[in-house]
Design brief:
By secondary structure, this protein is of the alpha+beta class. It has one domain: Alpha-Beta Plaits. The strands form two sheets. A two-stranded antiparallel sheet has the order 1-4. The protein is globular, with a radius of gyration of 11 Å. It holds the Pfam family Fer4_13. This is Ferredoxin. It comes from Paraburkholderia bengalensis. Ferredoxins are iron-sulfur proteins that transfer electrons in a wide variety of metabolic reactions. Keywords: Electron transport, Iron, Iron-sulfur, Metal-binding, Transport.
């Protein structure tokens, strides 16, 4: 599953980073970056789902139909 973030919605609240530090981080300008865009393990999927549930602006989603590249 592919993680997608709508950067136009993201307010960099940081909840996703604390819930899924292997998937998300902040860059030098305090903007969200996706470290790993493909969830390949059940643990990563769970972390991504937790981050999605806690995002205050609903900027994160999992795309189950995206093809791996």
């Amino acid at each position: 599953m592919k993680i997608e973030v709508d950067m136009n919605k993201c307010v960099c609240a940081g909840m996703c980073i604390s819930l899924a530090p292997t998937l998300f981080d902040l860059d030098g300008n305090a903007r969200l970056i996706v470290i790993k865009s493909e969830c390949t393990t059940p643990k990563e999927v769970k972390e991504a789902e937790d981050a999605i549930a806690c995002c205050p602006v609903e900027a994160i989603r999992l795309n189950e139909t995206a093809c791996s590249k």
